[in-house]
Structures are given as structure tokens and as C-alpha cells.
Amino acid sequence: MISLLILVHSDIRMDEVTQAVEDLKKEWSQAVSQLEESIAAIESCGKTGRGTEEATSLPRLNGSAQDALQLLKSLQFRLDLLAQQLPTFDEVQSGQATLESWDEQYKKLRASLRNANLQAKENIRKVAQEERELLLGDGEESTIRRRNLQTKAGMTSAAESITESLRRSRQMMVQEVERSASTLATFDESTSVLRKAEGEYQGHRSLLMRTRGLLSTMQRQDVLDRIILTIGFIIFSLAVLYVVSRRIGLLTLQRKLAAAIRSSSLSAEDIVTKAQHGPAPANVPAPIYDEL
User: Is residue 291 domain-resident?
Assistant: First the structure.
């Protein structure tokens, strides 16, 4: 029953891993689209003729692009962890191939971002040169333009400060999410190790129970063997005593028979002597015969 539950949980776990990989692929596509939009916006900086405004918005666009790059890097790391847990060998190979293609795409997007920044700086430099020439000129148009630029520069600076603060907060949140994902992956790995240890413990427990039963059987057999040996020794001792007693009885009987036979022989000799010589005188003592 326990093994069946472990098998069912393992299948559920594999389905969860496969679904997590699919979700990562969707997140990767969204992050790539967001990064491509940021790169296109950076590359178009300075082309609309608002060099100063676009120059102040360039750090914000770069911050957004850097966040997208960090997200892509995080997705690569998570895919690398999940690819090793896929249920079949083909799916593992597919995950590794996807990881390699993501790495190549990441490098291309990074190079595109660098080229877009170079292009944006060149565009902003050209627009700034034109604005400088216009501001240095005389006339009411130049004065109005200087005032508008100062107002817009102040507003843009405040907005950029808020945006930078939000970007740093978002970056910290992304780092915390990555750390939490890594911790969850470690917990999942520890849980799988504990399940394996539990299965091994159950196997050892059943083995120990069988060993304990065998030891009990051996102890009972040992007691039975001792009882049999004791009874056998008692029977053997009784037999020896019986044989010895019988042997002693036979020897006694033999001695009695020998004595009886000797006494019978003497009586027969006395009868023959009396018959030949007559009765013995009264005053003559009876002859004494040596038994030997």
C-alpha cells in the first residue's frame, strides 16, 4: 500500500515537473517579447527630435531591459533544475536542447541591447548638437525653447528618480523570488530523499521482523534440543545402571550356584564312605573336609 502511494505521488510529481517546464517556456516567450520591445525603444531614442527628453528616458529603458535579462537568466536557472527531474530520457534531452537554445537567444538579445544603446547614443548626440545650435541662437523661439527644456528636464528628472527607485525594488523582489524558488527546489529534493529513506526503512523493518521470527524459532529449537539431549542422557544412564545391576546380580548368582554345587559334592562323598566302611564310632569325631 505504501509503495502504491509512493508510486502515485511520484507520477503526480512528474506531471507537476512537466507542467512547470511548460510554464517556464511561456514566461520565457513573454520576457523575450518585453525585452525586444525595450531594445526597439532604446534603438529609436533620438530619432523623434527630442534629444534631451529621450536622453533622460534612456536609463529607464535600460533598467527595464536589464530586468528582462535578469528574468531570462533566472528562467534558465530554473529550467536547468527542472530538466534533470523530467520523467523520461527524451524529455530530459529536449529540456537540455531548449536550455542551449535559450542560452544562444540570451546572448543575441544581449548583443542587440548593446548595439541599440550605441545607436541611441549616436542619435541623441546628433539631436543634442542640433538643439545646442538652436539654443545658442538669438530670438524669442530660442528663449521659449530653453524654458520648456528646463521645465521638462525637471519633471523628467523627478520621474526618472521614482522609476529608478521602483526598478531597484523590483530587482530586489526578483532576487527574493529566485531565492525562494531555489529554496523550494531544495525542499523538494530533500522531500524526495526522505521518501526514499522511508521506503528503505520499511524494507529494513520487514527484514528485521523476519530475522526476529527466525531467531525466536532457533531459540525454541535450541530449548527442544536441550530437552531431547537431557532425556536421552537420563535414559542412557538408566540403561547403564540396569546393565551394571544385572551384571552384579549374575555374579552373585554364579557364586551361590558354585557354593551349592560344592556342598552337594561333599554330601555325596559322605554317603558313599558310610556305605563302604559302616557307621562311624560314636567317640570318633566326624571328619573335617576342606572345601577346597
Answer: no
Between CA 120 and CA 135 the distance in angstroms is 22
Name the strand (E) or helix (H) holding 177.
Answer: helix 140-277
Amino acid at 252: T
The amino acid at 236: F
- What pLDDT is stored for residue 154 in this prediction? 58
Q: What is the overall mean pLDDT for the chain?
A: 76
Residue 109 forms part of a structural domain: yes
Phi, psi at 30, each rounded to 5°? -65, -40
End-to-end CA distance of the chain, in Å? 99
Q: What pLDDT does residue 288 have? A: 46
- CB 12: neighbour CB atoms within 10 A? 10
| Residues 73 and 194 occupy one common structural domain | yes
What is the predicted pLDDT for the residue at 141?
A: 54
Q: How many other CB atoms are found less than 10 A from the CB of residue 78?
A: 20
Residues 6 or more apart in contact with residue 199 via CB below 8 angstroms: 2, 3, 6
Q: Give the span between the Cα atoms of 128 and 53, in whole angstroms.
A: 10
- Cα angle at 143 between 140 and 147, to 5 degrees? 140
153, part of any domain? no
- Please state the length of the chain: 292
Radius of gyration of the chain (CA): 59
Distance CA 58, CA 121 (A): 9
pLDDT for 164 beyond 70: yes
| Half-sphere exposure (Cβ direction) of 94: Cα atoms closer than 13 Å | 11
Q: pLDDT tens digit string along 91-127?
A: 888 888 888 999 999 999 889 888 988 888 887 777 7
Kindly state whether residues 239 and 208 are assigned to the same domain: no
